[in-house]
């Protein structure tokens, strides 16, 4: 497996919380950092801490450099205090927009959500999405959560 043109990266734990992260390219990190921190982002490979309670968003593979929520230009959708919680960063479609499309407008697929919300129309995911990848998976996760709410009768 290759990640960012290198041999497979060993998944290093977050230096703050110790949980495993997901690989993210340096171009994404530099684009989303506040201007004051961009020069510190010299690596081509980072990890994103996936712990919703941890303040760290990105960290280098060696753990020497990390960036917190306060140093990022956008809220990170899954972090506990994110506001707004974007499902699609490129089109500024929120998790709540997707949930509404499922629960109140009858969307059942990512394509239907996209049509109703405008998600995935202005794709520049490598720069705009904090993971540096397409938001399709996030939108599908929210659709699944919406189905679960409909099944239990919770809105």
TrEMBL record:
Xref: CDD domains: CopZ-like_Fer2_BFD-like
Record-linked Gene3D superfamilies: 2.20.25.270, BFD-like [2Fe-2S]-binding domain (1.10.10.1100)
- Could you tell me the superkingdom of the organism this chain comes from? Bacteria
The cross-references to InterPro entries, in alphabetical order and at most eight, read: BFD-like_2Fe2S-bd_dom_sf, Znf_CopZ
Question: What residue stretches are annotated with the CopZ zinc binding domain?
Answer: 13-72
Q: Which residues span the membrane?
A: none
Q: Can you say what this protein is called?
A: BFD-like [2Fe-2S] binding domain-containing protein
Species the sequence originates in: Acidaminobacter hydrogenoformans DSM 2784
